Amino acid sequence: MVRVDGGGDGTSLVTVRNLGKTYRRGSEEIHVLQGLNLDVDPGDFVAFMGPSGSGKTTLLNLLGGLDVPTTGSIRVAGDEITSMSAGKLTAWRARHVGFVFQMFNLLPVLTAYQNVELPLLLTRLSRRERREHVETALAVVGLADRMHHYPRELSGGQEQRVAIARAVVTDPTFLLCDEPTGDLDRRSADEVLEMIAQLVSEYRKTVLLVTHDPRAAERAHVLLHLDKGVLVEAQRADLVR
Amino acid sequence: MKYLRLLRVNLFRKKVRTLLTLGSFAVAMFLFGLLVIIRLAFNQGVEVAGADRLIVTNRMSLIQPLPLSYDQRLSAMSGIRDVTHVSWFGGVYQDERNFFPQFVIDPSTWRQVYGEYRIPADQWKAFLGDRQGVIAGRGLAARFGWTVGDRIPIRGTIYPGSWEFNLRGIYDGSKDTDDTSQLWIHYNYINESRTTRYARNMVGWYVVRLDSPDRAVTMAKQIDGAFANSPWETKTDTEKAFAAGFAKQMGNIEFLILSIGGVVFFTLLLVTGNTMAITVRERTAELAILKAIGYSERFVLLYVMAESVVIALAGGLMGVALAKLLTLGGDPTHGLLPLFYLPAADMALGIGLALAVGVLAGLLPALAASRLKVVDALRRI
């Protein structure tokens, strides 16, 4: 269950309390996020929508440990990440977070297989175990037959599916998707969204998705609106439809 | 090991750029090797000089002679173990370009003073028994294809006329650095051919071997004092100082080499640093992604550094190997640089320098990459 009123009992997978992020530009302070609360349970699929500059990506970066908040706390699976050092946060990301970005961000000099294997190189898995994990992840996204192709040899949709495989190969606590369909045509976008929905329904993955696309948002269990740094509305996606 | 693939694919991502950077390292290190070779060649006498040997020359100049009679006076001085004398023959073999040092020596005392040269006993005996006999260094004999028993015609310049010598032996050095490009000629044979009274019974310079190298300075003063106010005053130096002075006649080679080397390395540092900076800038997004998915700052630092270091090391090895290859063919200057070699220690120094340049050039871009903020980097894409 997803709550934004701060009324959760703190046992959720993700617990955000009084989260604030302020940027300083010269003498001016820009409050991107203010007093934000959020509770997300395992298996939830949450979509964040809102106008540009509303703080969606900032929120996602904070939840993924890529940035540190000005105020408040973020607890993920019992770990208070806002008090972690940079080094610990890096290790935490490797263990708990799978990122999917708008621009796919695959390494062009590596094959699909090698790109997916990248997060596993940080683990103690043997070469054979890594191969098993990579092949499984690529099979889940339907690209087992393209594993030795380079990104330049894949379509945009396929590239994003490889990025999804890279995000899930370590079986992270949750997936953070920042505009995953923003750079895709409609058909490819639908395929990718179907893939993400399948990860939630079949593999019980927890997904937090930032998007401008209502069709992407309507696949989520819960739709949250961010405006001027505040979660002003919380509504199930199917109600929007 | 599992990260080597990452390093490899990045090295070959821009093949032309990698090859050019590698090439610049190779050329620079080849140049370094060449400079070392030349420096060693010019300083060969300094490197191999005996600590217990003094050179006694005419105070006026090296080309002015000293009387043969000084031999006895020097031998009588306490603290001097052996005395021999040498003169510069300066003849031409076949062509003036075929330069090599020809020394007129006193065979009866030569080997006591220069014990580092190795000559088979029978060859030395044959040399002693033939006044027209000569001994050649192994390098010299190889250069002209001489074998023992050959007749060697030399046109005299200081000692006019056509001279015919018999090659009676070939000497070797006891170390790689010993000069084996010399030809030794009997003093008596040359001395007897002199027609003027003035020129007869004169020698070029004396070499004395001391009982103890610790007394070199005192003995030098004592020798010069003994011949002060005579028609042939002397100037005595240690062999090392004499050789260094000889090398300096060619200018300050060391300074020249250091200057050129310094400029080359600084340029190399800028070129490689710039290349690495471009590389990092081009890969900002990729480095950000690596950090996002859990690669540490230290990993990113080493990852970028490794690329720079591998290029430097490969280029350095290539350059130094090329310089070494050049020396394997022997002296290409036809005798100007008889000691033409690149010691292992200097090869290691060259590779070490290449490594240092690789580390320095990669350090700033690597630090920038490791400190990259993922959020900022991804926003720039």
Please, could you describe this protein's structure?
The complex is a heterodimer of chains A (241) and B (381). Chain A has 241 residues and is of the alpha/beta class. Chain A has a single domain, classed as P-loop containing nucleotide triphosphate hydrolases (Rossmann fold). Helix content of chain A is 32%, strand content 27%. Chain A has helices at 56-63, 86-96, 112-117, 127-140, 156-168, 186-203, 214-217, 237-240; strands at 14-25, 28-40, 45-49, 71-76, 79-80, 97-100, 174-178, 206-210, 222-227, 230-235. Chain A has a 6-stranded mixed β-sheet, with helices on both faces. In chain A, strand 1 and strand 2 (28-40) form a beta hairpin. Chain A is globular, with a radius of gyration of 18 Å. The two termini of chain A are 20 Å apart. With 381 residues, chain B is α+β, with helices and mostly antiparallel strands. Chain B has 2 domains: 4-44 and 251-380, no CATH class; 53-211, no CATH class. Chain B is 53% helix and 17% strand. Chain B has 15 helices and 12 strands. Chain B has helices at residues 4-11, 15-42, 44-48, 70-76, 107-113, 121-128, 138-144, 187-193, 216-226, 239-248, 253-282, 284-292, 297-328, 344-370, 374-380; strands at residues 53-58, 66-67, 80-88, 102-105, 117-118, 133-137, 151-156, 161-173, 183-186, 202-203, 205-210, 234-238. In chain B, strands 1, 3, 4, 5, 6, 7, 8, 9, 11 and 12 form a 10-stranded mixed β-sheet that branches. In chain B, a hairpin with a 4-residue loop joins strand 7 and strand 8 (161-173). In chain B, helix 13 packs antiparallel against helix 14 (344-370). The two termini of chain B are 31 Å apart. The A-B interface holds A 61, 64, 66-67, 86-87, 90-91, 93-95, 99, 101, 103, 105, 107, 109-110, 114, 118-119, 121-122, 127, 166 and B 2-3, 5-6, 9-10, 13, 285-286, 288-297, 374-375, 378, 381.
